Amino acid sequence: MDHKQQQHTQIFEEASVIQGFDIELSEQNAERIDRLVDDYEKSILSRVDIEYSENSTFSGRLADGIAKFGGSWMFIGWFGALLAVWMVWNTLPFLTAVHFDEPPFILLNLCLSFLAAFQAPIIMMSQNRQSARDKHESVIDFAINYKAEQEIEDIQDHLHRIEADNLHNVAQFSSELVQIKQLLASIEDKLKIN
C-alpha cells in the first residue's frame, strides 16, 4: 500500500464519524473531501505564485535566482571544481610560466572576499522577499481557516436545529400517539358497552 493510500485510509478512519453528531462518512466521501481540499490548496498556491511573480521586480527575481543557484549542490560542485583547478593550475611546477596567482593565493582570497561580500546581501534580499511571501501565505492560511471555522459553526448550528426539530417532531408524534391510543381505548369502551 503506497503512502497516499495509507493517508486516505487514515483519513477515513479518523473521519468516518463526524464527532459529536454520529454522522457516518463513507470512504468514497472522505476521499472526495480530501481531494477537494488538495485541489483548493493547489489553486490558492498557484494564485499566490502568479501574484508573487507579477509583483516581482527584475532585481527581485534576479536576487531569487542568484540565491537559488548559490544555495544549490550545483553551485558547490562548480565552485569546488573552479577552486581546485585554480590551485592546481597555480601550483604545478611545469606550468610556472602561466601561473597568475602564486601560493598563498592572494588573488583567490580577494575573489572569494568579493564573492562573499556580494552574495551575502543578495541572499538576504531573497530571504526578505521569501519572508514577505511566507507572511502573505500565512494571512491567506488564516483567512481560509477562519472561513472554514465559520462554515463548521454554520453546519453545527444547522445540525442543532435539525436535532431540535427532530426532538420537537418526536414529542409531537408521541403526543399524537397518546391521543390516538386514548381515542382507540374510548372507542373500545363504547363498543364493549354496546
From TrEMBL:
Sorted alphabetically, the keyword list is: Coiled coil, Membrane, Transmembrane, Transmembrane helix
Taxonomic superkingdom: Bacteria
Coiled-coil features, chain-numbered ranges: 145-190
Spans traversing the lipid bilayer: 69-89, 105-125
Q: Write down a Pfam family by its short name.
A: DUF1003
Q: Which InterPro entries match?
A: DUF1003 (IPR010406)
Q: What is this protein called?
A: DUF1003 domain-containing protein
